[in-house]
Amino acid sequence: MTKFNHILVPFDGSGSAIVALRTALQMAERFDSRISAVYVKKTDDDPLAQELKSTLEEISQKRNREILYMHPVGKMYKEVVKTVSEVGADMIIMGTHGISGFEEFWIGSDAFRVVSSSPVPVITMQEAFRKDGFKRILAPIDQSKETRQKIPAIAQLAKLFDAQIQILGTTKYSDEESERIVRRYVSQSLDLLDKEGLTADVTYALGVNIAKATLEKAKETGSDLIIMMSESEPSSGLFMGSNAQQVVNHSEVPVLTLHPKDVGIAITGY
Questions:
Q1: 99 CB neighbour count, 10 Å cutoff
Q2: Which residues contact 39 (CB under 8 A, 6 or more apart)?
Q3: Global pTM exceeds 0.85
Q4: Mean pLDDT score, 14-33
C-alpha cells in the first residue's frame, strides 16, 4: 500500500453506498485517484441501473471528478471482485448495513464475501458515518504473526489525514507467554511507527474476546477507522478470521481489512 491509484465503490444508491462514495471522493482528492462505481444488476433490464447512472453523473459534475460506471449482471460479490481486476483497482470502499446481535455471523452476505475474497484492501462503512476523513485510527495488535503487517497502512493513512494512532495490544489468551508475545509485537509496531516519525497511544486488553474489546475501545476513544488483518487468530486456518468478521459486522465506524498478501511485507527475526 503506497498509493491508492484507483478506488472501486460498489454502488446501489443506498445511504451507506452514498457515504462510501463520498469517502472515496475525499480520498481520491488527496491521492489524485481514479474512481469506478459498480452496480451489479439482477437482470439485464434492471431499471435501477439507469437511475444510478444519472445519480453518479450528477455527483461527478458537482465534485468535478470523473466516475467510471459499470453495471454487469451476476452475483454481487463475484462481479465486484471481477471488476477489481478489470479496472485495475487497488482499493474497495463499500457501504454495509451491519447486523444486530453480537454472536451472529454474516456468512451469507455479499459484503462479507467481498471482504473475504477481495484481492485488494477493503474499507467497509455504515450509513451513520458522517465524518470527513479519519482523525483517530485504532489498530488491534494481537498474537498472530501477520498483525504487524498493518503498520505500513496505519502510517500511510495517519500521515494522509494527520490522524492520532491508538494501538490495542490484545489476545484471547491470559497466559504469560501470550502476553509476552503481544507486548513484544506492540513494541515492534511502535518502533516501525517511530521510523515514520509517528507515535501511538497504547492500551492492553488480555484474555478477552478480541473483536468485542476492539469495538469497545473504538467507542471509548472516538476512533473513526479500525484497521484489521483479515486473519487475526493464530493457526485458525480461516481465510478471514472470526475476529475480523465480527468487527466488520458490528463496527459503527469504518473498518479497513487487509489480507497479508495485500501488504506484501513480512517482519522476520522476532
A1: 15
A2: 10, 11, 12, 13, 48, 49, 52, 69, 70, 71
A3: yes
A4: 92
In whole angstroms, what is the distance from residue 249 CA to residue 263 CA?
23
CATH of domain 6-125: 3.40.50.620
Those residues whose C-beta lies under 8 Å from the C-beta of residue 75, and which sit 6 or more positions away, are 40, 110
Topology annotation, domain 136-263 = Rossmann fold (3.40.50)
Q: Distance (Å, rounded) from C-alpha 22 to C-alpha 28?
A: 10
Chain-centroid distance of CA 73 in Å reads: 26
pLDDT of 130? 82
User: Between the CA of residue 55 and those of 7, 22, 72, 224, 231, what are the distances in Å?
Assistant: 18, 13, 17, 27, 37
Residue 70 amino acid letter: M
Residue 37 in 3-state DSSP? strand
Decide if 234 contacts 260 (C-beta within 8 A): no
Q: CATH topology of 6-125 equal to that of 136-263?
A: yes
* Separation between Cα atoms, residue 13 and residue 54, nearest integer Å: 11
